[in-house]
Write a structure and sequence with these properties.
The complex is a heterodimer of chains A (about 150) and B (about 180). By secondary structure, chain A is an all-alpha fold. In chain A, helix 3 packs antiparallel against helix 4 and helix 3 runs parallel beside helix 5. Chain A is globular, with a radius of gyration of 17 Å. Chain A starts with about 50 loop residues before the first helix and ends in a 5-residue tail after the last helix. Chain B is mostly helical and about 180 residues long. Chain B has seven helices and two strands, in the order αααααααββ. Chain B has a two-stranded antiparallel sheet with strand order 1-2. The mean pLDDT of chain B is about 85. Classes of the chains: A mainly alpha (about 150), B mainly alpha (about 180). Chains A and B meet through helix 2, helix 4 and helix 6 of A and helix 4 and helix 5 of B.
């Protein structure tokens, strides 16, 4: 479901924007510092470009570490939320399982809140993610912020 | 973040003024520093230790909100080690509140701070206007006579007589035959 629309800013690594292809015409207008071609020309003179799959795989691996500690979870989540993207469901799944290994339910709920906030005006991303994560949420017994009522004031 | 810095500076200043020894940092004072500004109560916060803050872009802060747990809270933490499906919603919310202060909804709620800021701006601009008016009355020297209408008329006539900028500028706009502006 993920459209790969790479947007690159010279010198920095902006990542693909999470889009739902079902909604067709809707896309984020991003200011592009350089002309983007699908494959060939890049703005930085060197350095391999990481594909979306590699990015996802890297983060899934990060959170899948069996003996991950609390600091690594915090660092990973804060870094991930700092990126200009909404994480894929599989990354979040891996992160939620890491919370389970650390016996940290509060962080699991916090992650869901953060992801919803990260989607910003794109109100359909979060329900989609929850739908994708439903099996994991029921398996681990994580309630969504909506179920607990903390998404309201 | 900036607000917390200001509170901390205020805290340091107040502790200097009061000349009291800085107490060992307690979690409750750290919480107060990040909670509501209260200059009398805020003590100097040890910024070399991990701190808690509510930030949208930092979902998991450096430390938990509540460090000191009561016995009931500790037993809840023990229960958290088991299956989470056995926790009630209230327990889940309680666990959340142990680790975090504000929810994202609470962080995102609209505040009226901008009204204070704009009001303050208008107030100080108004105060400046008073200062400027006072200066006009008490500081400025007398008005130069060159601003009088009579003087200005004579000055204008003199400029025309001198043929100031006669080609494209001033005097070129004056019709010397008819004695009027073109």
């Amino acid at each position: 479901m993920r459209n790969i629309a790479p947007v690159y800013h010279c010198g920095a690594m902006f990542r693909a924007v999470f889009r739902l292809s079902a909604t067709g015409a809707r896309s984020l207008a991003r200011s592009r510092a350089c002309y983007t071609a699908p494959l060939a020309s890049r703005c930085y003179s060197h350095g391999k470009v990481e594909s979306d799959e590699e990015f996802d795989a890297r983060w899934v691996t990060y959170f899948s570490k069996p003996d991950i500690d609390a600091w690594e979870l915090k660092k990973g989540m804060n870094t991930l939320i700092g990126y200009d993207l909404v994480p894929e469901a599989k990354i979040l799944d891996s992160a939620l399982r890491a919370c389970r290994r650390l016996n940290d339910l509060a962080s699991a709920i916090r992650i869901l809140e953060a992801v919803k906030d990260k989607a910003g005006p794109h109100k359909d991303i979060y329900p989609y993610l929850i739908q994708e994560l439903k099996p994991t949420l029921s398996e681990l017994g994580i309630s969504t912020p909506e179920e607990l009522g903390i998404d309201k004031l | 973040m900036l607000k917390m810095m200001l509170q901390l500076i205020a805290g340091r200043v107040s502790s200097l003024v009061a000349r009291r020894a800085t107490l060992a940092l307690t979690t409750s004072s750290a919480r107060m520093a990040s909670h509501a500004p209260d200059p009398e109560v805020t003590e100097a916060v040890d910024m070399s230790r991990p701190m808690y803050w509510d930030r949208l872009d930092t979902p998991l802060p450096d430390k938990l909100y509540k460090d000191e747990l009561s016995a009931a809270e500790k037993s809840l933490k023990e229960k958290e080690k088991g299956p989470w499906s056995q926790l009630t919603n209230e327990e889940k919310i309680a666990l959340y509140r142990l680790s975090f202060h504000q929810t994202y909804a609470e962080m995102n709620q609209p505040k009226s701070e901008w009204k204070t800021v704009v009001g303050g701006i208008f107030f100080f601009v108004g105060f400046t206007a008073l200062v400027v008016w006072w200066q006009r009355v008490y500081v400025y020297p007398p008005r130069p006579r060159t601003f009088d209408d009579e003087w200005q008329a004579k000055q204008l006539q003199r400029m025309l007589d001198m043929r100031i900028n006669p080609i494209e500028g001033f005097s070129s706009k004056w019709d010397y035959e008819k004695g009027q502006w073109k």
